[in-house]
Recover the amino acids of this structure.
């Protein structure tokens, strides 16, 4: 009976979402306060019912209700409870429900924290979010019902894909969706601003914390996904330029551009149309990602089972939302370039160039991802586009950004002093050169590694110099407003990330070896001794577990236990052993016994040393932190009265300027 | 006008995505068209399954068109294809050569004994090395090779009555019209 | 698409999924570390045809193993990377290359981003020019707080 309640809850949520999308919009149009007042209660009510449906699905998993098809397909009696919860979003139907739940979380948060904004504006924003919710609730109810019954009820279920039975996977989808869906808020703000005309100039300021927070979540989600691929897929790689990865990366790139463009628009009134367009792009790309992952039109390691019906539905919805919003943009976007003038050497120019590079990078990723499809469409034959393509073009496009980065904080709005910039150029340049020379002694002439150290020093020193400058020049308490601190953190994250990527890519050592117990292999300055294989068991798997003792110049470093697991339903899954470290990871994966009948004999193993690879995720986490810290700036949380007066005065000032 | 540009770009994108849905529902996404069509088949020399001492080579097959059907006892889809071959192989008008791909000879013999043998001759490639020259990447696959030793048609995946009637038969007929 | 074919595809995918996540660990007798590096690099740029989206180096599919061994064999025969790639392209088409060759068919792929960059660069350049001339730009008056 309970699963039907879940479905009923979803239907009620859909009705409330319909009310939320239509009535407040009508109210805002006709100036009817009663209709506008529907927005908040409808949003809260919808959230309650969606949460209820979600809770019912969780409950079904926890209580092994295999009469629910989705539960039977994705869990079994042996699966531990924490993975049964993660199994809720382990496949298509449940992950869509999570998508809608998170959309509701954002909507309710917005409804709560938007009391200081004009009612007309909030009504429109909540309506737009309601429309998106209607689309996805219909999608769930009509094509992807997670509460479908399986009768007669089987005694036991199938299994959650073993690849998903990993802590990284419990964490990765919710956080990633927080990012994806979070861009819907900036999207809704933009639509509301387009609908409202030039009245709400201040909308960009209101949208900024939401954009920054969403981007922070997206960064975190991508980091978690990358970490999961590294640890769980067992290939030791951290990014594969797979279509599904690209689908999450494109909104991230556009998000970076959007965050900066919003700063220009808010502070200087320039680039208004562009900021709106970027908000539309960021969320459109999130929707596109959903489409790519679930339609199965691209071949990917991560794709869900493909179903043309679902693909068609999402495409229609995509066409409605994205096509509609771009049409609205064409009709209503501000026609005259507003805002204050700026010189060639100014922060606006630098941000514009950065925006250009990030947008082109996103377009490049889109082109590369969809090109195989284009090849089919234009009859060019089947073509693969992979890491060599992206790995060549992406760094080229990002190079100007890295070169501009240290100047960012020093550049002034409007027009900058050139001498200050020359000083930065000299100092960061000297630091980069010095670090490059120093690094050259350690990396045996690996140009990529030297470039990595130089770029990181260039960016890092630039950021640190600015931190010192602020500390010297500003009185305590006014040195680092949250918005600036966030920027500095995120930029510093870029430096850390650069070290991680370029050093680990160039200095990693991989070896596939055949080892008998007692045998030693030397990899990257470490000695790996294979001490044989034993049997071990877990809650829902049995495994052959290798013991590898690692020493360096005879001194013990780590004892590692790579496993080859066999899950309840005979799926085989390699569990690599990782010994993490700040300057290097040691990584061991267990292959096959050379003789299947003698597991006590020789085995095939893959041994890696991966210098500085952790810095990749460290850099990503700094960027995430930057997004969150910026979002927390008090400037974005001004009291209602102050905000109200500003709302009226800002446009006037802008037009005079 | 420039404000409409993003909208038109999106229309193009949406068209491409719509095409993708259509294409994927009508094509096998894993099939990779072979570049060997209308090129000479690779030279091969493989033993017969039932008499490993006898070697069949490309040269020994020249003169008449023949069909090479890649199968294996471990291949599930081959089991689905098998009844079709049993029913139709004799009516094709060309010799049908079974190509036992990456298989144990004993397994293959048992499999043929159980399900019947539709082939005029079976050759074995236990290592799969020669198959790489043919561009084989799975089973079942089927090649039509003409009397001059040129690959004229390739089917990736199982032959079905429809495929035979609509693709393979016309290809064979065309070959026989060419023949003097 | 016929029913049988669809079943075949499905089964193939299942079969692949079953093995895909196990390790592709394949010790080969390299002559030296340089050759091993060359092999790792080469196989990482070749696509495993039967997998979802994996390179030869990472794939544990049986067929990927065969191709890896073929690549190794060709390397032992002294073939260059370009020759080995050509060998596979002749048999399996450009689809095996993750690094698509620059030709008329991939022209848009390789130069499309450049075209977008140039077009975008023109717009940015035009905007900066216009905005820096539109008004006499005020000299920096920031007190450091308006950063």
């Amino acid at each position: 009976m309970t699963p039907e309640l879940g479905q009923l809850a979803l239907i009620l949520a859909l009705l409330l979402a319909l009310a939320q999308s239509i009535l407040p919009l009508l109210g805002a149009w006709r100036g009817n306060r009663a209709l506008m007042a529907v927005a908040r209660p409808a949003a809260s009510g919808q959230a309650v019912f969606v949460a209820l449906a979600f809770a019912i699905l969780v409950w079904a998993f926890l209580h092994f209700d295999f009469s629910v098809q989705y539960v039977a397909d994705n869990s079994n009696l042996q699966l531990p409870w924490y993975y049964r919860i993660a199994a809720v979003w382990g496949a298509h139907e449940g992950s869509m429900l999570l998508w809608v739940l998170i959309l509701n979380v954002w909507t309710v948060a917005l409804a709560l924290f938007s009391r200081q904004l004009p009612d007309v504006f909030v009504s429109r924003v909540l309506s737009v979010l309601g429309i998106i919710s209607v689309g996805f609730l219909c999608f769930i109810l009509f094509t992807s019902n997670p509460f479908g019954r399986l009768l007669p009820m089987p005694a036991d279920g199938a299994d959650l894909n073993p690849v998903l039975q990993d802590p990284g996977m419990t964490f990765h989808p919710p956080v990633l969706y927080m990012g994806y869906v979070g861009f819907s808020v900036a999207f809704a703000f933009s639509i509301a601003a387009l609908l409202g005309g030039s009245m709400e100039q201040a909308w960009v300021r209101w949208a900024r914390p939401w954009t920054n927070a969403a981007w922070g979540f997206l960064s975190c989600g991508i980091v978690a996904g990358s970490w999961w691929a590294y640890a769980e897929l067992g290939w030791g790689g951290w990014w594969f330029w797979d279509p599904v990865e690209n689908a999450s990366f494109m909104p991230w790139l556009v998000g970076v551009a959007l965050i900066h463009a919003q700063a220009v628009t808010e502070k200087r009134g320039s680039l208004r149309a562009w900021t709106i367009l970027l908000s539309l792009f960021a969320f459109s790309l999130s929707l596109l990602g959903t489409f790519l992952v679930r339609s199965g039109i691209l071949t990917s390691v991560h794709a869900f089972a493909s179903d043309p019906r679902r693909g068609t539905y999402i495409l229609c919805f995509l066409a409605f939302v994205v096509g509609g919003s771009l049409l609205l943009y064409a009709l209503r976007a501000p026609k005259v370039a507003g805002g204050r003038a700026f010189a060639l050497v100014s922060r606006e120019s630098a941000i514009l160039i950065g925006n250009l590079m990030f947008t082109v990078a996103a377009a490049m990723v889109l082109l590369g991802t969809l090109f195989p499809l284009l090849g089919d469409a234009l009859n060019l034959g089947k073509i693969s586009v992979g890491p060599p393509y992206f790995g060549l073009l992406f760094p080229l496009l990002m190079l100007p950004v890295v070169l501009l980065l240290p100047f960012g904080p020093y550049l002034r709005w409007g027009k900058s002093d050139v001498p200050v910039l020359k000083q930065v150029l000299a100092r960061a340049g000297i630091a980069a050169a010095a670090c490059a020379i120093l690094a050259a002694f350690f990396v045996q002439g690996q140009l990529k590694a030297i470039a990595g150290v130089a770029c990181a020093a260039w960016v890092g020193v630039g950021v640190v110099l600015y931190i010192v400058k602020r500390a010297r020049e500003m009185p305590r308490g006014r040195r680092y407003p949250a918005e600036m601190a966030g920027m500095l953190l995120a930029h510093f994250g870029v430096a850390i990330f650069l070290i991680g990527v370029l050093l680990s890519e160039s200095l990693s050592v991989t070896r596939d070896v055949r080892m008998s117990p007692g045998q030693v292999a030397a990899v990257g300055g470490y000695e790996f001794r294979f001490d044989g294989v034993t049997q071990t068991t877990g809650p829902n798997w049995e495994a052959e577990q290798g013991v590898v003792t690692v020493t360096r110049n005879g001194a013990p470093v780590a004892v590692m236990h790579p496993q080859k697991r066999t899950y309840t339903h005979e799926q085989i899954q390699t569990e690599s052993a990782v010994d993490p470290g700040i300057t290097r990871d040691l990584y061991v994966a267990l292959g096959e016994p050379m003789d299947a009948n003698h597991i006590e004999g020789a085995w095939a193993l893959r041994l890696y040393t991966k210098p500085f690879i952790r810095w990749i995720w460290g850099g990503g986490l700094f960027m995430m932190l930057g997004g969150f810290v910026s979002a927390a700036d008090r400037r974005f949380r001004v009291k209602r009265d102050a905000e109200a007066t500003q709302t009226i005065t800002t446009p006037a000032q802008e037009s005079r300027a | 006008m420039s404000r409409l540009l993003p909208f038109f770009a999106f229309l193009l994108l949406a068209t491409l995505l719509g095409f993708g849905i259509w294409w994927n529902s009508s094509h096998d996404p894993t099939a990779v068209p072979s570049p060997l069509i209308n090129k000479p088949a690779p030279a091969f020399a493989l033993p017969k399954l039932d008499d490993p001492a006898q070697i069949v080579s490309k040269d020994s097959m020249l003169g008449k068109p023949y069909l090479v059907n890649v199968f294996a006892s471990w291949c599930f889809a081959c089991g689905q294809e098998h009844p079709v071959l049993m029913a139709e192989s004799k009516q094709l008008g060309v010799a049908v050569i079974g190509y036992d791909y990456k298989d144990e000879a004993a397994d293959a013999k048992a499999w043929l004994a159980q399900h019947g043998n539709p082939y005029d001759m079976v050759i074995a490639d236990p290592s799969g090395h020669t198959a790489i020259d043919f561009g084989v990447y799975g089973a079942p696959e089927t090649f039509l090779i003409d009397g001059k030793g040129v690959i004229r048609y390739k089917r990736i995946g199982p032959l079905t009555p429809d495929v035979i009637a609509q693709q393979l038969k016309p290809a064979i007929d065309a070959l026989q019209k060419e023949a003097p | 698409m016929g029913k049988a074919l669809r079943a075949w595809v499905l089964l193939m995918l299942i079969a692949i999924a079953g093995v895909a996540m196990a390790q592709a660990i394949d010790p080969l007798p390299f002559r030296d570390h340089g050759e091993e590096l060359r092999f790792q690099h080469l196989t990482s740029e070749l696509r495993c045809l039967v997998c979802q989206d994996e390179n030869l180096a990472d794939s544990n599919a049986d067929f990927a193993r065969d191709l890896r061994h073929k690549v190794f064999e060709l390397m032992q025969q002294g073939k260059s990377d370009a020759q080995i790639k050509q060998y596979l392209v002749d048999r399996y088409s450009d689809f095996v290359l993750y690094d698509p060759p620059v030709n008329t068919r991939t022209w848009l792929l390789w130069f499309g981003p450049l075209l977008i960059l140039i077009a975008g660069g023109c717009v940015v350049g035009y905007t900066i020019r216009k905005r820096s001339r539109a008004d006499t730009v005020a000299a920096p008056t920031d007190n450091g707080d308006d950063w």
User: Anything to note?
Assistant: The helical segments of chain C are 3-20, 33-44, 62-76, 81-92, 107-134.
